[in-house]
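Task card 7
Instruction: Convert sequence to structure tokens.
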Amino acid sequence: MRTRVRGWRWRRNPLRRRSDVVEAWTTVVVALLLVVGAPLLGAATAWWGYGQAQAIVAEQRAERHQVRATVADRTPDSLARGQLGGQHSYRATVHWKTPDGTEKSTTAPVPADARHGDTVDVWLDAHGQSVPPPSDGAEIWQHSATVGSFTALGTALTVLLAHRAVRAVTMRRRMAEWDRDWALTEPQWTHRRA
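Output:
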């Protein structure tokens, strides 16, 4: 039957080695880093990622504008369907009028159920090229949560790997200390000369 003695690494006793104390303090530091450090670093990184994503979305909103366009016809590559805002889409030629009355056209993704003559919303850049719509609030939160989660996870894994490395070194030192002490003690027990 095994019995565990709690806190033996902290109390003075003849069997305690310096490596035992190092391992005990390392365990305390690792516990603090896992419980406090990793979540705080993850939250700070998520907050930073949220700010960065907000800046990118503001830039996208400044560079892009939405127009109401009329679907003219499908393009030859329209059989290659994609996703537009969670629904299927295809590429089609669309026409719209600028505020000064000039008619323009481009190829843009439109919903799959759009037919010739239907009016659709299309996002354009400053050059009149079709671009995806700016990210919305849900995408920003998803981005920041992903960044924060992976940072916290990476931090926790790094701390655990470092703890494992410290334990391996302390175990090697502990065994070396025990071997050295046994070399001094063994002749007294076995009456054999070293």
